[in-house]
Write a structure and sequence with these properties.
Blueprint (H helix, E strand, L loop, with lengths): L5 E2 L2 E2 L2 H7 L4 H12 L3 H19 L4 H7 L5 H12 L3 H6 L2
Helix pairs in contact: 1-2, 3-5, 4-5
């Protein structure tokens, strides 16, 4: 089951989800790592990447607009996460379509 990263239009991190589940952030990450092989942060980044891929292929929005839509304050942080997870920059990924 994917973690929902956007709640009320805001990007949320590990602490938010741990609090919502009444768990410590460390314990939540330990549980997810044990049962899925990925930490909470990794799940969040994968969901962000999937949403970004859909936006890159289905819209003409700039990379900065997509980053802001996903809740990033700085597009460079979005680009770094996207490239780490996909091996391509958002611009390179968009050009594949």
């Amino acid at each position: 089951m994917p973690i929902i990263i956007m709640v009320l239009g805001m990007l949320h991190g590990v602490k938010f989800f741990a609090s919502a589940l009444n768990l410590s952030p460390h314990y939540l990450s330990d549980l997810l790592k044990r049962y899925t092989g990925k930490t909470t942060q990794e799940h969040i980044h994968l969901q962000l990447t999937d949403k970004a891929k859909a936006l890159l292929w289905s819209t003409e929005k700039s990379i900065s607009e997509i980053a802001y839509d996903l809740g990033f304050e700085h597009p460079s942080h979005f680009t770094k996460i996207f490239k780490t997870k996909t091996g391509k920059s958002p611009t390179e990924y968009r050009q594949l379509n």
